[in-house]
Amino acid sequence: MVFNLVVNIIGIVVFIAIAYLFSKQKHAINWRSVGVMLVLEVLLAWFLTGSQIGVDAVKAAADGFTWLVNVSYDGIAFALASWVNVKSMDFVTSSLLPILLIVPLFDILTYIGVLPWIIKWVGRGLAYITGQPKFESFFVVEMMFLGNTEALAVSQLQLKQMKAQRNLTIAMMSMSCVTASILGAYIKMMPGQFILTAVPMNVLNAAIIAAILNPVDVKPEEDTIAKISGSAAVEETTETTETSGSEELAHEQVKEAKPAREPFFSFLGDSILGAGRLILIIAANVIAFVALAKLIDKLLGLINSNLSLENIFGVIMFPFAWLLGFNPSDAFQMASYMGTKLVTNEFVVMGEVTSKINDYAPHFRAVLTVFLTSFANFSTIGMIIGAFKGIVSREKNDLISRNVGYMLLSGILVSLLSAGVVGLFVW
């Protein structure tokens, strides 16, 4: 165990070194801010996995999500009793249909202003502690609750005003989030304690990796913060000691852009329909990716009976998996799961391991769960570029499109760093 722990620590250093190696402006990296975030992250990982208070808090939160999911089964059973009242529910019923309750619930919290208030003050607190720009700090917290495309949508006025290089930072951060409303589905398949631990870890690591890969000098007059109000998205500049004429104009434009508040039941109906579309999107992606993976395995088998996607991914990702503190055989298995997740999505791997996750050693279970808890995969790149295309100018969108490799690298490094730091405290 001591040797594996040392390797795990070395792995964390290596992941940060890789980010530095590919940094666009090595001389501009704010190492003080990066160091503060790393210390904060290690303390948070210890608190959530190594202290009794933190473990109990995460367990209580996981139990809360489980309770919500169980409540949702009452609604599902009313319409589809034969899907619920069975010995073992299928993936769609057990994990996806509860989204019909959880998504509207989070949207209601947004509508009444609870989530916007939490996001604003947590984002400001993170900016104050870490020294990162206010909007970037706000955005990573926003993603923790809303997801990547939703967070981009409610921040669109500010994204239009920011310079292209900062838009690229936001795009890179967008690779490493999960939507709070989908956590119930994850918790039905993987250990809830590590699912909920991964969420704040990804927030910090998205800021760390972006600050190293793409450091941007943000002047005081550019340091703005977003504010969402109910179902309406608006942007406001933060208060400064001096206000320029352009800032006053931007503020007036924001006031004019604020739409009327949508009636509650119209808002709720749209939320429910959106949840239904999300279920269909996830189900379609899982079915298609699993089928495509099986087809590729069949074709590879025609070349060599031992050739498969799992083995290919195992070879490619093996060094990174080994650096997470595993012996060679476990590292190869972990690497195959990691590669499959990146090429397909987290649901494909979760569905494969859910029946045996509790049979794995604690370290393997924690590292795998944390690594899987993000949207970092190839399909997410398309979603993010599509979202930016509908928001910013062509010039800004072209810069993001030219840096797809950086977006994918950012997502992978954030997942590795989160898994590595959590793995330090779970053996």
UniProtKB/TrEMBL annotation:
Membrane topology: Multi-pass membrane protein
One Pfam family in the UniProt entry: Nucleos_tra2_C
Main location: membrane
Cellular compartment(s): Cell membrane
GO molecular function, one term: nucleoside transmembrane transporter activity
Positions of the Concentrative nucleoside transporter C-terminal domain: 195-423
A GO CC annotation given for this chain: plasma membrane
Name this polypeptide is given: Nucleoside transporter C-terminal domain-containing protein
Organism this protein belongs to: Lactiplantibacillus pentosus (Lactobacillus pentosus)
